[in-house]
Amino acid sequence: MAKAADISTKRLISLAPENWVKWVTQIPDIVFGEIINSEFQWISRESDVLVRATSPQYGEFIVLNELQLRYKLEMPKRMRAYAALAEEKYNLPTYPVLVNILKESDVKIPTSYESQFAGLQARQDYRVINLWEVDVEIAFTQPVPSLLPFVPILKGGAEESTVQRALQILRADEQLSQLETVMAFFATFVLDSAIVQQIMRWDMAILRESPWYQQIFREGEQRGEERGRREEILSGIELALEIKFGTEGLQLMPEISQISDLDRLKAIQQGIKSVNTLDELRQFI
Question: Is this model's pTM higher than 0.90 or not?
Answer without folding.
Answer: no
